[in-house]
Design a protein that fits this description.
312 residues, TIM Barrel, 12% strand, globular
């Protein structure tokens, strides 16, 4: 079967001879334009001959003009709706259009976004986010709701260009945020985005980021796929999640091992992953971004071993 047929069978819950496989890491070219990013991404996909592609997105959420730091209520009130087509994301849209032309009728690709809370923290609130959750919770929630609206418009545009789904990374671990703050500041805007785009993508994915996860609190996300670091010592396992959701799971590869172990180890690791994931509802992938300095023959060994498990 071809790449698209294999993914469709997994999404439908049908048994496959082997899981579709992909890997990803951050290319670090957010300083460049969409054309260069698209070229690197398609070269990467073709070189490793993945079954599906996770498109990275390192173009940041665009802050209000002249605002270098969000740290007060007044700063939060400057967060406003904007035209995503005229934002810094236009470079990602440009890249997605090129990638869509390259992969059309060959393979699916999913586009990456960061949830509203992370979008706020990464380049706007930064070190101030913890204080804002304590001192200005209502203003922060209002700002996050606007960020969610802008992300919804971004996701709609991405899906209309050709993305098969949206891969949203969200922090849901005790080492990253308290459970109380997760339930108050992270989950509601995430749910808002997923509920709107649920009908527009077939591979919408919740990436549950972190290690000691609040997984019981994310099982109700209306997504097609759950992704997380399943091979960490904290889990949970692929089977545990599969038993609790109707959709698919994505993982099996410990991202911390990809650039730090031998090809022999990685081949065994892939065989273990396929056993853990099973023959249905399983996408083989790293649990989170792997190191950018990975050894290409090691990554090829992962792909080759996965394909050797079935009909290639």
């Amino acid at each position: 079967m071809n790449k698209i047929e294999r993914v469709d069978r997994v999404l439908s819950g049908d048994e496959v001879d082997r899981p579709p496989v992909t890997l990803w890491y951050h290319f670090g070219v957010q300083h460049a334009g969409g054309e260069q990013f698209a070229r690197i991404t398609t070269e990467y996909f073709n070189y490793y001959d993945f079954d599906y592609l996770k498109v990275m997105n390192d173009y940041f959420y665009q802050p209000p003009e002249g605002l270098d730091a969000v740290k007060t209520k007044d700063d939060l009130m400057r967060i406003a709706h904007f035209d995503v087509e005229q934002s810094d994301w236009q470079q990602q849209f440009k890249a997605l259009s090129i990638i869509n032309e390259e992969l059309k009728d060959k393979a699916y690709f999913i586009d990456t976004v960061f949830d509203p809370w992370q979008s706020m923290r990464r380049n706007m609130a930064g070190e101030n986010i913890d204080a804002l959750m304590v001192d200005q919770p209502d203003a922060l929630l209002a700002a996050l709701d606007i960020v969610a609206d802008n992300l919804i418009e971004y996701c709609k545009r991405s899906l209309s260009i050709g993305s098969a789904g949206i891969f949203m990374s969200l922090p849901a671990a005790c080492e990253l945020i308290s459970r109380e703050n997760f339930l108050r500041f992270v989950k509601p805007p995430v749910m808002k985005v997923f509920e709107v785009i649920a009908a527009h993508g077939k591979m919408n994915t919740a990436h549950i980021h972190g290690e000691d996860l609040y997984f019981d609190d994310v099982l109700d996300f209306p997504v097609d796929i759950f992704s997380w670091w399943d091979r960490s010592s904290k889990g949970p396992s692929l089977k545990w999640v599969k038993d609790r959701v109707k959709g698919c799971v994505m993982g099996g590869i410990n991202q911390k091992m990809v650039a730090r172990t031998t090809r022999e180890f990685l081949r065994n690791h892939v065989r273990e992953a396929i056993e853990l994931g099973g023959k249905t509802r399983f996408f083989l992938a790293n649990g989170c971004s792997s190191d950018t300095w990975g050894y290409p023959p090691s990554m090829l060994a992962i792909v080759d071993e996965a394909k050797a498990a079935g009909g290639r």
